[in-house]
């Protein structure tokens, strides 16, 4: 096996031990000899990086582990670059969650007005990272977890030349739920959508589609999404297994009310979880990720990421669900639309598998509307365009009202003035 260099951008994240555990578990198929852990927060990087070192040294790792605040040093000559940044930190996320609620809109970090503002902060930074990768490590693969993952992938795949995979743990959690439901893992499936807006439209076991027999639990759940049960008639109206994020679209008023009544936002809860994790990470006797990390909501992220890297590096010809340019796979989406779909992954890269049966008008309509929102959001971030920003909010199915769109955008833009181009400010 060739010797590999990994760079982790945003390595001060409490998720990093999850990723390091993935590297350790797959060391027989991935020969990483250099780990460059980069973050602008030196204190957190030292703490999280310290645990990462103890984890690697505990299994006899003899390679290089570098903690750095220099992104160029981290990405130079890297083979695989993992991005998990949060521009504005948790304080910005909490604002993204709270401000929309004041306007009667859902506050959430990846969709609606909150996800929109997160995208406006994150896209310019990720495009800058992409330019550095193009210059310093043009043959590397960028594996991105940074939210909102789908819009970030839309921006980078259409405005840079990096080799990139947009990644999310949504499908791997759904797949685990299905495996538990059918009692086996050797099933086929068809999956399509956008990041955090996706459906499983068939599950085939021994040549038979068993989708209708699956229980509601097969969609799995995430700790960061309040539970909302899917009504049987809903599942008949849209005959597909929805990802858990679709509860924001299927039950928007119910989800909004839960957020309004909650004592704390998810971001505020995560701050408490992260503070406790950081204290645990400081323990010099801790040499593995603690169980409490599961409460953070990133279950199976490393499973998804490392599995894709193994498939690329070892030419595995495996199917994985990732964010990729459509290129005709879903006939009602444009070729340059970044979609989330089953792909063949090998040394040549990531190739989307065409869906067998174009889906019903509900799926088509919702995907096209949210993709239009994503395109306009990218245009607003790239061009500093206020008109594109307002158009994006107006077309988003969770907003769609000019007065609300303008009011929430003006307040959120003012609160994020340090991160936005002047053209976006009120």
Q: Which class do the helix and strand fractions yield? A: alpha/beta
| Radius of gyration based on Cα positions | 21 Å
Distance between the termini: 54 Å
- State the share of residues found in helices, binned by percent: 40-55%
- Measured by DSSP, the beta-strand proportion falls in 15-25%
What is the averaged pLDDT score?
92
> Which fold name is given in CATH as the topology of the domain at 4-167?
Rossmann fold
Sum up the overall morphology in one term: globular
How many β-strand stretches?
Answer: 13
Report the CATH superfamily of the domain at 4-167: NAD(P)-binding Rossmann-like Domain
User: Largest sheet at a glance?
Assistant: 7 strands, antiparallel
Summarize the helix and strand pattern as letters.
EHEHEHEHHEHEHEEEHEHHHHEEEHHH
The CATH architecture of the domain at 4-167 comes to 3-Layer(aba) Sandwich
Low-confidence stretches: 220-224
Structure annotation, total helices:
15
CATH class descriptor of the domain at 4-167 = Alpha Beta
Question: Would you write up a description of this structure?
Answer:
With 426 residues, the chain is an alpha/beta fold. The chain has a domain at 4-167: Rossmann fold (3-Layer(aba) Sandwich). Helices cover 45% and strands 17% of the residues. It is built from 15 helices and 13 strands. Strands 7, 8, 9, 10, 11, 12 and 13 form a 7-stranded antiparallel beta sheet that branches. The protein has a 6-stranded parallel beta sheet with strand order 3-2-1-4-5-6, with helices on both faces. α1 links the parallel β1 and β2 (32-38). α4 packs antiparallel against α11 (266-281). The model is unreliable at 220-224 (pLDDT under 50).
């Amino acid at each position: 096996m060739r010797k590999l260099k990994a760079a982790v951008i945003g390595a001060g994240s409490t998720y990093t031990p999850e990723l390091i555990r993935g590297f350790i578990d797959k060391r027989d198929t991935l020969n990483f000899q250099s780990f460059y852990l980069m973050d602008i927060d030196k204190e957190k990087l030292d703490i999280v990086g310290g645990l990462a070192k103890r984890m690697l040294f505990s299994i006899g790792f003899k390679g290089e582990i570098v903690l750095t605040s220099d992104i160029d040093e981290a990405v130079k000559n890297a083979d695989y670059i993992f991005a998990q940044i949060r521009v504005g930190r948790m304080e910005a996320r909490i604002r993204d969650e709270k401000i929309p609620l004041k306007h009667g809109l859902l506050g959430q970090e990846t969709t609606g007005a909150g996800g929109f503002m997160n995208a406006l902060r994150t896209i310019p930074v990720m495009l800058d990272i992409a330019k550095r990768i193009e210059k310093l490590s043009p043959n590397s693969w960028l594996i991105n977890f940074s939210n909102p993952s789908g819009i970030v992938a839309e921006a980078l795949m259409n405005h840079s030349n990096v080799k990139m995979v947009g990644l999310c743990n949504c499908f791997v959690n759904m797949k685990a739920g299905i495996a538990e439901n059918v009692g086996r893992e050797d099933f086929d499936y068809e999956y399509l959508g956008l990041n955090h807006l996706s459906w499983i439209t068939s599950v085939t076991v021994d040549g038979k589609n068993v989708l209708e027999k699956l229980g509601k639990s097969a969609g799995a759940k995430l700790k960061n999404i309040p539970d909302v049960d899917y009504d049987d008639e809903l599942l008949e109206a849209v005959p597909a297994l929805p990802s858990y994020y679709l509860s924001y679209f299927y039950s928007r008023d119910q989800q909004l009310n839960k957020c309004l009544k909650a004592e704390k936002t998810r971001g505020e809860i995560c701050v408490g979880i992260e503070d406790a994790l950081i204290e645990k990470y400081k323990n010099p006797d801790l040499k593995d990720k603690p169980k409490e990390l599961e409460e953070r909501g990133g279950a199976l992220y490393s499973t998804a990421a490392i599995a894709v890297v193994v498939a690329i590096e070892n030419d595995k010809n495996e199917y994985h669900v990732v964010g990729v340019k459509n290129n005709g796979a879903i006939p009602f989406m444009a070729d340059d639309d970044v979609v989330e779909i089953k792909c063949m992954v090998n040394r040549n890269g990531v190739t989307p598998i065409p869906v067998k049966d174009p889906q019903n008008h509900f799926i088509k309509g919702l995907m096209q509307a949210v993709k239009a929102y994503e395109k306009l959001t990218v245009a607003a971030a790239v061009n500093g365009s206020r008109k594109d920003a307002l158009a994006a909010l107006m077309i988003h199915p969770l907003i769609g009202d000019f007065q609300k769109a303008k009011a929430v955008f003006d307040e959120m833009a003012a609160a994020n003035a340090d991160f936005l181009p002047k053209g976006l400010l009120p």
